[in-house]
Amino acid sequence: MADAVISEVEDTLSYSCEVELSDRLQMFEAEEHSEGFVVGLEPEALVLPMGLDEWRQSDLKGSLRRSDEGFVYSINHQDGALYAPLLFCLSRDAGTEPYTWRRLSVAEGLSRTPNSTAVGYRAQFNESQWLIYRSLAPPASRSILGQNTTAEFIFGAVDDKGMFHQYVGVEGAISN
């Protein structure tokens, strides 16, 4: 689940999304990290706010917080564009197995792109690794984690040999 916010002017953007949960479910915030755990009678899901840093103390640009109805994901970002992905791991063991996520560098023409142009993330649940990429500017030939793409959006798995397997892709018009 994700939202992209793109402004025509380079300005600070504030984004907030409330996700309502069933009365039988609650979200609990991790103490030291930014993620949350959705729990009913048993654990139901791990929620990773990919647009935030993993460590709560290092991230001053947003939060994932419990609310009366469920939880609120918020991000503040400068430069006139932001991408706010939430990744849900629906395995009941997700919170007890090793997991992590990181923002990745995206390159265009041998230079790192600013986050207002394109963003990428890698998530790992136990042995499974996932890649998310989103262009926030007109698509161009860019690379992320060794993958070259002109797509507006890609999502897929990275196998244990480092090969990328794209599951979802959205193509956009290439800028000149």
Question: Which short descriptors sum up this protein?
Answer:
176 residues; mainly beta
Structure characterization notes:
The protein has 176 residues and is mainly β. It has one domain (2-171). 0% of the residues lie in helices and 56% in strands. It is built from no helices and 17 strands. Strands 1-8-5-4-3 form a five-stranded antiparallel β-sheet, with no helix packed on it. A five-stranded antiparallel β-sheet has the order 9-12-13-16-17, with no helix packed on it. Strand 14 and strand 15 form a beta hairpin. The radius of gyration is 17 Å and the shape is globular. 28% of the residues are buried.
The termini sit apart by 30 Å
Strand elements, count: 17
The strands making up the biggest β-sheet line up spatially as 1-8-5-4-3
Biggest sheet character? 5 strands, antiparallel
How much of the residues is beta strand, in percent? over 45%
- Count of spatially separate domains: 1
Derived from helix and strand composition plus strand pairing, the structural class reads: mainly beta
Radius of gyration: 17 Å
What is the helix tally?
Answer: 0
Shape: globular
Low-confidence stretches: none
What is the helical fraction, as a range of percent? under 10%
Quaternary structure of the protein:
single chain
